[in-house]
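tl;dr need the bound structure. longer version: we got a ligand (flavin-adenine dinucleotide) that a collaborator sent over and nobodys looked at where it sits. i said id run it. heres the input, straight from their email, havent touched it
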Amino acid sequence: MYTHNLPFLKLFMLLSLSGFAMHISNPDPLVPASLQSIHLNGHIKFENLTDFSQDFGNRFSYEPSAVLFPASISDISATIKHVFQLGAQSGLTVAARGHGHSLQGQAQAPGGIVIRMESLRGTETRLHAGESPYVDVSGGELWINVLKETLKHGLAPKSWTDYLHLTVGGTLSNAGVSGQAFRHGPQISNVHELVIVTGTGDTVKCSAKENSDLFYGALGGLGQFGIITRARIALEPAPKMVKWIRVLYSDFTTFTEDQEMLISMEKTFDYIEGFVIINRTGLVNNWRSSFKPQDPVLASQFNSEGQKLFCLEMTKNYNSEDAETMELEVIELLSRLRYVSSTLFQSEVTYMEFLDRVHVSEVKLRSQGLWEVPHPWLNLLIPRSKIHEFAKEVFGKILTDTSNGPILLYPVNRSKWDNRSSVVIPEEEVFYLVGFLSSAPSPSSLSLEKNENLEIALQKNKEIVEFCHSANIGMKQYLPHHSTQDEWRAHFGDKWETFCRRKQAYDPLAMLAPGQRIFHKAPLPLL
Ligand code: FAD
């Protein structure tokens, strides 16, 4: 049977902490025989599993012993029951893999079983129209497919991520945040019901009213309490079109004051985000293919080189019959903003084009070989009262340019997040999501050589995190990654006790989502 041993543990810990691309293959020869006895509608694969030891972060790679392609919820339940019955001594773990877009191996199971959740996709997407519409979808469904399906009925989910080729279960295990979160809260605030297979193999329907402890635990629960196999997602009437606007600021205070004013208003834009641009050449020209400048002459004279700029990005939804009203509302809202006047850029696209916008970049980057590269991303939640101190130190001092990828920065309202969920956020009513979304392609074609770009990006991330700690910023990580249980305890703060209690209740052998590195299957010592 698969058992951890101390040298392996030490190696695992060492590699986990080093931050460089690594690959561990640790298949257990006894696993296939044991799993083949399970009666399944789908199937299990034991060979050629490399694809399941990769993720978007491209830095951590742990090969599983087996991959389950479930054709039904009962396949997932039977597999987990089987592993549960093997007991603590087996060391075998189970990880649900959504679209594998984690950054640090969170959807991987070293030597364990990966469940390919996308195989559950398409299992009966059921839409309920009416006054409070919703859709029941598989936990392995991609959000892009949820959008396509619901648009057929003139409806769509309310809250999104910037990129839709992620699974429902994957984003609900984190939070799911984008420019609609100020109004609707994150995706986890827009779920009515879940069907979860727990770490004992039990299938449990849960909601705010029924089995609510598991429901809230699983939302933002980093996959620790069970596998989300179905989710009931709140819908709203979908607009056909979107007015998409970008304006630039050179002053951070004015930029954030305007962002905060917009998210506090009743009648405001439908999506509000922002990003930081440091020392970029030809920025405005780059936008021209998709955005029309309000004043082409003045815009062409605008020079981004050597500048620290802040872009406010907003959209207003509309249908052709209310285009005029929308234009008036946009003019009124823009008149309140204090951006650099020559930098108003606008575009009109379909709702689908807007929501699926990052996929366009993906296609382009893939064609240049720049998608499957290391992504040393760092996502932080910063309380409003500290955002200026944070910006002063980070933008310009720690980071002197943004050529490696965008830096998102936008505020959201805490009151739209449910404190009963597992996700951890700062204490203040307004806090900022700041996402350092770096790419680190290797400067050399020789893969064995050190990737200097990655080392530099990781060093900058470290400096940013250390600054937050030393300056008492009250920062929390989003898509958190920590190396020790003390760090996890600090991350969860006063939610830690509840998190541990739920783990004991729903995954007593700690077999689920080992790639998060929060708990380790007994009888292992904690890393
Ligand atoms: P995976 O990476 O496969 O899994 C993530 C974790 O959840 C793992 O621990 C896994 O075991 C667990 N898990 C997966 N499925 C289930 C399930 N059904 N039940 C229980 N546990 C499960 N996030 C945002 O909030 N906002 C954004 O705007 C945003 N933009 C992004 C853009 C890009 C290009 C990328 C790559 C990521 C972005 N993310 C964003 C982050 C994204 O939400 C997370 O990385 C998410 O985990 C990815 O979903 P996935 O389906 O690939 O999950």
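gonna send this back to them w/ a short note. DSSP finds 17 helices and 21 strands in the chain.
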